[in-house]
Specification:
It comes from Dreissena polymorpha. The protein has one domain: Complement Module, domain 1 (Ribbon). The chain contains 1 helix and 5 strands. The strands form 2 sheets. It has a 3-stranded antiparallel beta sheet, with no helix packed on it. Strand 1 and strand 2 form a beta hairpin. The longest helix has 34 residues. It is elongated, with a radius of gyration of 23 Å.
Length: 81
């Protein structure tokens, strides 16, 4: 993290270490009049873990689509009877 200081209006800039990527929170924050930093605390996660999570999310979406399609077909067949 680099920052100008802790006076109102000063900014801080966060970066993730090598092998990690920004996953949530704000990378640029400003010291506010209340003495707090704006935004939310940034979080860095393992690039490898993020890659695995992306694959799992895609598989979950595909499975959800299959289940929804199955239920729609089943519902249409039941309404015909």
């Amino acid at each position: 993290m680099t920052y100008q200081g802790t006076n109102i209006g000063h900014t801080s800039t966060y970066t993730c270490l090598s092998g990690y990527q920004h996953s949530c929170g704000d990378l640029y924050r400003t010291c506010t009049g209340s003495g707090a930093w704006s935004g939310s605390t940034p979080v860095c996660g393992s690039e490898r873990l993020a890659w695995h999570n992306d694959i799992l999310l895609k598989r979950l979406r595909n499975l959800t689509d299959i289940i929804i399609n199955f239920l729609n077909v089943r519902s249409m067949a039941a309404s015909r009877n």
